[in-house]
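Let us begin with a simple case.
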Amino acid sequence: MDIAPYDIRLARTSDLDSLRISVKRTLQNPDGKPARKKFGDAVDRGELLVVARRGREGGEEIDAFIEWHSRVDGVVTIRDTGSAGDEPNASHVKRLVRELLRMSSPPSATVKVDADLPVWNQVFAETQGFRLEGKEYSRPKYRNIWTWTSAAEAEDRIRAGRIGRPGARR
């Protein structure tokens, strides 16, 4: 049986250099400006998931990441996410978002996205359970506030016909 070429896992300290090299454009840094934050604290807290690709020589390269913060009451705030390449890899980001929600089982999750970034807004619009809650103005632009709840996800599944409603015909 072949081993999957990708692995979704919590980041390790040894991943930080690869993360800085491979991922340039992120949700919080869509232009890919050189000033990048350090992820060491998120790694120490266990709040950084990565998609690691296995190379032919046995090494790993980081293709995407998601950083979040969990409050004491379990609510999750997605702080940043990104993927390797010039454009966001929506499939990797969505997969990381779904894995984060599965792994942490929060009552709700929130993310703020610049309103003028259609690719990033589309990622959350297409992820089951996320709803556009509103907008806020944060100089110099507006940001969309996306919120996920398990009830909204269940509602989306019912609409998609993936799970049955009581008394509904199939």
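The second case is a distinct protein. As before, the sequence precedes its structure tokens.
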Amino acid sequence: MQGKNIILADCDKEEVEEFAKGFSNRLGEPVEIYSKVCNQEHGSRLKNLKRYFSYMTYPIAFFRKRKQWKYMIGWQQFYALFYAFFCGLFHIKRDNIIVCCNFTYISKGNGLAGKLYERFIGFCLKNLDYIHVLSQNYANICADKFNIKKDKFIVTHFGIPDARHKKSHAAVEYPEYSFSIGRSNRDFDFLIEAWKQMPENEILVIASDTYKPNLPLPPNVVHRTDITGELQFSYIKNSKAVIIPIKDGAICSGDTVLLTAMSMEKLVVVTVPSTLGEMYLTDNINGILVRKDAGEFVNRLTHIFSDKYLAEDISKKARKTFLEKYSRLRMGENVANYTMNKTSI
């Protein structure tokens, strides 16, 4: 099979360079990165429509030149999905291999729009060669839901660039606080309800520009909508703990926040069940895994906050685990390993 190997991303190229290097090392061939940032449009329906329109139109130029590619890797899942959609729509017999990275399916409901979206995703997945997900459980769920062979799924850990040495000089106005950040699949309602039972001097900062609290916040909870992009690293770095409350434990989400916190040697607290608990953490070893029971949650946190030696030991082991397993270079090598003997569909 001849041609170039390309990655389509929706972030700064440097964010994907280590992944590309790992993939290239294993493949023994260069891998080029192309990027168009589309994921900044969040919030209103119009912004979401503009974002999805960009997801659809950007892969068209690469689809037109499809005979030039050997591997087409969608770091942004929708770039790979729409590329595969066009191939299936026009019944293209192709030689290149399409890999969809970091796949996550979030239902749009049981109405007409939700059903059409589900059929669209299913059609795209059937025209992909590989679907990269972050847990075996999620691979099984997707295979059953969309009636796809399980050997299409690549199950690996996620990987990020080491965030420990990021230079961020933004002032953090809270002397001591726990931090929780995210847009999707976060159960901030549970976290706030549980935090009402925490001591008043325990401050929680929630950063989300899409979350809208249903009830007034207790005095020790702060909701911020302006902590995004590079600014988030200052708040992670200066926090005493990073807390990730997961809404749907079967959906892969929160990996970037978790690994960023681990790389910065932070105490990480994750609700279970979740793929984060399944894939990355061992309770009381390199993180805290706790059920979404308010009483249990408060007891676990107050205990760990009162034992600084234990919290420090868990934080150091989180950093050690990150270095050994979860770099983006290693992720690229692992994904490439699964594809080496595959011919295109």
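The first strand starts at residue 4 and ends at 9. The mean pLDDT is 92.
Keep these points in mind for the review questions at the end of the chapter.
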